[in-house]
Structure formats: structure tokens, C-alpha cells
Amino acid sequence: MAEPTQTVNPPTIPQAVGIAWCAWHEAYSNTARPVRDTSGARLFACCSCRQAYDLAPLADQP
Ligand SMILES: [Zn+2]
Question: What confidence tens digit (pLDDT) does each residue in 10-48 have?
């Protein structure tokens, strides 16, 4: 059995997936990332709102 010579690169986590709804300023943003709000719900927050409300993106948490 021949092994494939091509190796598949592991998928990288996209930093900006595209446009998502920011639940904090209630508008679409292309910098929105999933975060947890104070109730534990998963919502999207844009870059400025994450800085303004001190929100950590879920992807950056362990
Ligand atoms: Zn926002």
C-alpha cells in the first residue's frame, strides 16, 4: 500500500471569520468574535466593544 506523499496542513483558526452581529453595539461588524457575556451566554462582540467592556474572545481562553 502506497502512502500519500502529500501532507495535509492542519486547518488554521481564522482570526476574522467575516461579518458577524455584535450584540453589544447591536450592529454587524467584521471584527466580531465569540465571547461570553456575564450570564454565560455566547455572543459576538466586535473589537471596540471587547476593549470597551473588557471581553476576552473564547478562542483566546483555555
Ligand atoms: Zn460592537
Answer: 665 555 457 999 999 999 999 999 998 888 889 999 999
What backbone torsions phi and psi does residue 32 show, to the nearest 5 degrees?
Answer: -70, 140
DSSP symbol at 16: -
Q: Where are the domains of the chain?
A: 20-60
The Cα 21–Cα 1 span in angstroms is 49
pLDDT in tens, 8-19: 666 655 554 579
CA–centroid distance, residue 47 to ligand 1 (Å): 7
* Residues around the ion ligand 1 (C-beta < 5 A): 22, 24-25, 46, 49
Task: Please state the pTM of the whole predicted model.
Answer: 0.64
